[in-house]
Amino acid sequence: MNGTEPDSTQQRSTIRDVALEAGVSTATVSRVLNGSPKVSAGTRAVVLGAMERHGFTARRRRSRTMPLRDLVAVRCPYTLTDYFGVILSGVARSLRLRGKGLFLSAEAEEGDEASLAELLRPEMTDGAVLILPPEPSAKLLDLRAQGYPFVVIDPRTALPADIAAVSAAHLTGSRLATEHLIKLGHRRIAAIAGPLNWIATDGRLLGYRAALAATGHLAPEELVQVGGEPTIAHGLEAARRLLDLPDRPTGIVAFNDKIAIGAMEAAAERNLRVPEDLSVVGFDDLDLSRVVVPHLTTVRQPLEEMARLGVELLMRLIERREIHTLHIELATELVVRSSTAPPQL
Question: For labelling alongside 298, which of 33, 159, 337, 341 has CA 20 to 30 A away?
């Protein structure tokens, strides 16, 4: 073996390996690579030592002329709850099957003005997967203009046609959920939506309204709760308002499973039984939906398939292969469990 080349162990080293050896987070390693002043001198020395032992320093010196071809940045600037954890795990598995390492991009700390390029490290990564990115389309277009390949999984807002993205059929899924309640005989059906200005919120509200309109009814505004984070706490507060109406709903279509569970808690507070007195439908089909009692009827998003297709699309961009479509929307599926039933007359 040529003594000037790093050995095979060094070639396989990733940011995670450096972080584990140094006893720090991947975010700290990223800050050292970025030259951030928010790392103590002692910690910086430990990280630099670990980087040197893993051959990371040498790779950075030559990175501008010799791409690594083994690291993909994955940015998920959210707490890794069930939803994001499933997507991230799916991305990691798909990358591993393709011989790629994963560089988990850290969110900038308060006061930082890090650009996407600084967070994703284009000089050391081949491309990136962005999960529900909070940046506006203009910033994503700037990144694309630099020639850096990336794919968006679960876009937060509508994206230009030339930005690669994978999402689920929000409108269809919500329409299926609402139609399910209509077929059971419900007429007072409420919706608890998600955050404002999210395309998922817009699509799911549109599906809810479309299903009601098909029966010749419009959704009364008092039955539509819009805004708020997609959490159990938001579902609890929104459902309290709905269930305290003089003419309360007999069914609720929730933006996601956590909001649905919050609605079930609000029903329990009022001694209302689910599904006898109130039917509840969620969205996502997280593990939580199969743990609560009664088990939650929900709309399944193909999260692992979204991750797999996102990685496949990114590999095509990196390898400059032909791509027939840049926007992929995967079908959703209604999963009927025991939280829905005909209303008691």
Answer: 159
Tokens encoding 12: 């396989």
The whole-model pTM stands at 0.77
232-276 pLDDT per residue, tens: 999 999 999 999 999 999 999 999 999 999 999 999 999 999 999
CA distance 197 to 127: 27
Q: Residue 177, exposed/middle/buried by CB under 10 A (0-12, 13-18, 19+)?
A: buried
Enumerate domains of the chain plus CATH numbers: 1-66 (1.10.260.40), 170-301 (3.40.50.2300)
pLDDT at position 42 is 84
CB atoms closer than 10 angstroms to residue 269: 12
Phi, psi of 143 (to 5 degrees): -65, -40
Residue 97: CB partners within 8 Å, gap ≥ 6? none
Q: Which are the contacts of 251, defined by CB distance < 8 A and separation ≥ 6?
A: 181, 184, 186, 188, 189, 190, 278, 279, 280, 281, 340, 343
Question: Distance between CA atoms of 223 and 225, rounded to whole angstroms?
Answer: 7
Q: Is 102 exposed, middle or buried (0-12, 13-18, 19+ CB in 10 A)?
A: buried
**DSSP 8-state assignment for residue 150:** E
Beta bridge pairs of residue 324 = none
Give the tens place of pLDDT for each residue, 321-341.
Answer: 988 889 999 999 999 999 999
8 A C-beta contact, residue 209 and residue 219: yes
Termini Cα distance of the chain: 81
Q: What is the pLDDT of residues 109-166, one digit of tens each?
A: 444 456 788 788 887 899 999 999 998 899 999 998 888 999 999 999 999 989 999 9
Are the beta carbons of 186 and 250 closer than 8 angstroms?
Answer: yes
